[in-house]
Design goal:
- The structure is a single chain.
- This protein has 127 residues and is an all-beta fold.
- The protein has one domain: Jelly Rolls, CATH 2.60.120.
- 0% of the residues lie in helices and 52% in strands.
- The strands form three sheets. A six-stranded mixed beta sheet has the order 2-1-10-7-12-5, with no helix packed on it.
- It is globular.
């Protein structure tokens, strides 16, 4: 889903997990829009963030239903995770993929390691 080469006209895609007004979580595919092209590449508009957290996740990670603690991007660096929304849709978010979690209320989601590997990821907090 994400990765070089980015051809002209190709948009980067991210996964978005959000809660509806009833607290049910759902996935949405979001395309990152580019605002400018420079000699160094295409750039999106700046997205304000409040912090960055580095995280190491054990290979047997299996977390029951939980909402996201805050709005944040999660960037998997070297292994994947399976996320299940409360509407039943499950997605494998692989290494190099980006997930925007916004299901901060309601039932939340399930998170489970899928590759039996230590996973390193980065949280970019938005609030």
């Amino acid at each position: 889903m994400i990765g070089p080469p980015y051809g002209k006209g190709t948009l980067m895609k991210i996964h978005r997990l959000y809660a509806d007004k009833n607290g049910e979580s759902h996935f949405q595919d979001v395309e990152v829009e580019y605002a400018e092209t420079t000699r160094a590449g295409r750039l999106s508009k700046r997205i304000p963030a409040t912090g960055i957290i580095f995280r190491e996740v054990q290979p047997d990670y299996d977390l029951d239903w939980h909402p996201a603690p805050r709005r944040q991007y999660i960037i998997n660096l070297d292994a994947g995770v399976q996320i299940t929304a409360s509407d039943g849709e499950a997605r494998r978010i692989g290494a190099g993929e980006v997930l925007l979690v916004e299901d901060t209320h309601g039932k939340g989601h399930l998170s489970k390691a899928i590759e039996a590997k230590l996973r390193n990821c980065i949280f970019v907090t938005l609030e």
